[in-house]
Amino acid sequence: MTAEQDRNGVVAAGDGAIRWGVLATGGIAGRFTADVRRMAGAEVVAVASRSEASAKAFADRFDIPRAYGDWAGLVADPDVDVVYVATPHSAHRAAAGLALEAGKPVLCEKAFTLNSREARELVALAGERGLFLMEAMWMYCSPVIRRMTELIADGAIGEVRTVRADFGLQGPFGPDHRLRDPALGGGALLDLGVYPVSFAQLILGEPDRVQADALLSPEGVDLNTGMLLGWESGATALLSCSVTAATGTTATVTGTAGRIELPSGFFAPETFVLHRDGREPEQHSVESGLTGMQHEAAEVMRCLRAGETESPLVPLEGSLAVMRTLDAARERVGVRYPVDEAA
Q1: What share of residues in the chain are helix, strand, coil (percent, to 5)?
Q2: 116: which of 39, 65, 75, 323 fits an S-S bond (Cβ 3.0–4.6 Å)?
């Protein structure tokens, strides 16, 4: 395989296809599989679930050649070049670890793990094995987000002073739902809060201070959480997440010379607006030839073809830093998972 791509980042069909194995069969796995199957230079050759029936149904739906009723079968498949882990985050450490132990590169959904300890373990394992590992933070691979960060780095809005972002779903989610189960990493923070936190840290890096407050469920997970992050530069980020209220899911970055506003769905935007004093608002968009989750898949395939074990767009230290912030926020609001006790 070569590292050459066309100007839109699509791997040319003649380069030899990257063969994906999809581990899990939920909604996000279906979306990823549908997107990857439309890409040149990519094939989805296997799927695994803890249920053979679920794996077979998923394989039939997407015309995937092999279906495994256990994870071990997929990670041992010699035709799988890379494993996409799409389980709930409570299983990320086990699933991604199993794939890495089997010698497979991994793209692992967010939140990366349940806590920073588990994340460090995965990063260390990938390093020991010399294998590629990346968190599936598709926001970081978005050409629109990348254009935004370029403008900020070039001083388009001056020095960043505030970041605001939110992500909330109305629910309700009953006591038996996984979002209410501490053992499954329930609550708003890891499911939704990871997006605002990752957005703020993409722009400002890891915060020096973390404050948080939350409404907790009877089970002890966060239902509605607000965070205030602070940096020594004087910059702040006001972030929120909720599984009890549908927020606008928008984001704003304000600097000393202007601001950038992202619309609803800020984590996968098609456009943003740059506001600067004395100028008309500027709407920015980027034509890439890719859609949805294809951007992150293209970055994984680029890295694999180039022999890289880490993506410069989604660096592992950035994923570790986000997990440290989420850990700190959970500590402030009093949310602990059973896995935390194993530390």
Answers
A1: 40, 25, 40
A2: 323
Residue 141 to residue 35: CA distance in whole angstroms: 15
Amino acid (one-letter) located at 146:
R
Q: What is the pLDDT of residues 154-180, one digit of tens each?
A: 999 999 999 999 999 998 899 989 999
Q: Is 104 a catalytic residue?
A: no
What confidence score (pLDDT) does residue 172 get?
Answer: 87
Helix axes 316-333, 194-204, angle to 10 degrees: 120
Burial class, 13, CB count within 10 angstroms (exposed 0-12 / middle 13-18 / buried 19+): exposed
The two three-digit tokens of residue 245, written as one number: 């209220």
Is residue 11 scored above 60 in pLDDT? no
Of 110, 164, 305, 330, which residue is the catalytic one? Answer: 110
Distance CA 131, CA 146 (A): 25
CA 225 to CA 331: how far, in whole Å? 12
- What does the pLDDT read at residue 342? 66
CA pair distance 247, 166, nearest whole angstrom = 7
E-assigned strand segments in 257-318: 258-262, 272-275, 282-284
C-alpha 278, offset from chain centre: 37
- Convert the pLDDT of each residue in 231-284 to its tens digit: 999 999 999 999 999 999 999 999 999 999 999 999 999 999 999 988 999 999
Residues 164, 249 contacting (CB under 8 angstroms): no
Query: Tokens 């199957």, residue?
Result: 37
HSE value, Cβ hemisphere, 13 Å, CA-based, for 194: 27
